[in-house]
Every structure is written in C-alpha cells, then in structure tokens.
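dumping these here so i dont lose them again. two proteins, back to back, each one seq then structure tokens. dont judge the mess
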Amino acid sequence: MRTIYDYKIEDYKPAMGKRLRTYREKSNLTQENMAEILDISIKHYSEAERGLAGLSIEKLLFLSRFFHVSLDQLLKGGKDEDFLPSAIIEVYETCPDEKKKHLVEMIKQLNILMQTETESQM
C-alpha cells in the first residue's frame, strides 16, 4: 500500500501536461496564447505540457476555472466527457437562473436528436 511519503510531486506532471494540451487544443488556443494568458514564457508553458515543469498553485487554480474543470480533474484526470468547451459553459453561466433548467433540457433533447440521426445513418 502506498503512503503519502511514497508519492512524488513529479508523478502528476506528464499526465497533467497531456491534459493541458488536450484542453488547450479543444479551446483552439496555441501554446503562445496560453503562455500569454498565464503570464509565463512560452518555453515554460511548453515544458509544462511535456511534463518537464510544474505550474504554481495559482496558475493551476486559474486553469481549472479557465477550462471549466475541477482542480482534481486537471491534476489527476478523469473521463474526457467531463470536459465542456468554454462556449457551452459561457452560455449556461450567462443564462438567467430561471431559464437554466430549460437550457439543460434543450441540450438533452438535442443530444437525443443527434443520437437518433447517427443511428439512422448506420
């Protein structure tokens, strides 16, 4: 059984770097864009994506909010479908509270429609 003393902080870097790259690419951003957003050098950001460098807790917290994923998801991963593009989050967050339930229902119906269309094409 592993204890907290067996875990090395470097263990998270390569996998987290891959997730950073995935989130960045899904958001249609370049490494240069991310470095500018984070106010770090392009080299440092590139190294973070390759698992060679870490990011400060402030940068990690910012990225979890920026990509709309939990800090736990960012650091440890999870299912790819847990990631939502920022455009969807922005629409939901700007929607009036009394309409959010309807927006979610519309998205569910759209998903059913798309699944039905995909099945009929097979």
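---- next one ----
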Amino acid sequence: MRRQVLSLLVENTSGVLSHISGLFSRRGYNIDSFSAGVTADDRFTRITVTSHGDDQVLEQIRKQLAKLEDVVDIKELKPEKSVYRELVLIKLRARPEDRQNIIPVANIFRAKIIDVSSDSMVIELTGDQGKLEAFIDLMRGYDILELARTGETGLSRGDEDVIIL
C-alpha cells in the first residue's frame, strides 16, 4: 500500500466538495485526510486529498477525479518535491503544577500556547504528520480533553508546476 497526496485546483462552486467526496464514497475509496480553501483567486479552491492504496487504485482515483468537470488541475505532491503541513489544536487538562512540564515540551516543538484557564490549556502546533504524531504521543501522558486536526495541505516546491490562470 502506498500513500498519495493529491493537490486539486477546482472551480469554487457550490457542490464541488460533494462531487469529490461522493466520487470517493461511490468507488469505495478511503480519504485519509482532506483540506480545502479558497486560493488567491477566489474563483478557485485548492483541495488537498490524502489517500492510500495499491498503484492501480491510486491511478484510478486520479483518473476519476480528472473526469469531474469542476476539476481544473490535479498534481500528485511527491514528498521530495513538495511541502506538507497540518495544524493540530490540543486541549489538555493542565493544573499549574503540570504546566511547568508541558511548556518546555511545547517550546521544543515550536508549538504555541493559545489559551490558558485555571485547569486547562490549548496548544497549537503546525508541521508534518510525523512531528504532530510525536507531540501528541508526548502529550498522552496528560489528560487530552479535546483534539482537532485540519488534515494535510501542501504545495509543490519551485515554480515548474504552477498554473497561471
């Protein structure tokens, strides 16, 4: 099984997300991660979809996505030629005596403490999946009250694959 990260440039129209997720659902393909946002040109949305499968399944996913009329461009973001990032927010139960142990770990990972209350704190961290997983594993020693992840988003390096619209 191989992991594939696809960057889709799609028309920013109502129903486009439904078309894409429906394609995965109808074909029985799993989505590992999905993120979407408007580009610099608000007529278009950039969608990053991460999935896994054998080469035949991954090729079929690309072909089926290319058939959708809202899809303008598809790029596979290969690890050596791309940059991926994800955001995680973690709410921990953190008594004052726990904070002195949590803060140095957060600093090592370059995480930001974005909220503190009398019995909890919220930490924001961005990075690749490995970095996020390592941080989450360390925080499991504390009581994780809530955790939210955005899903991966990414762009290719350099300008060779840039589409000018």
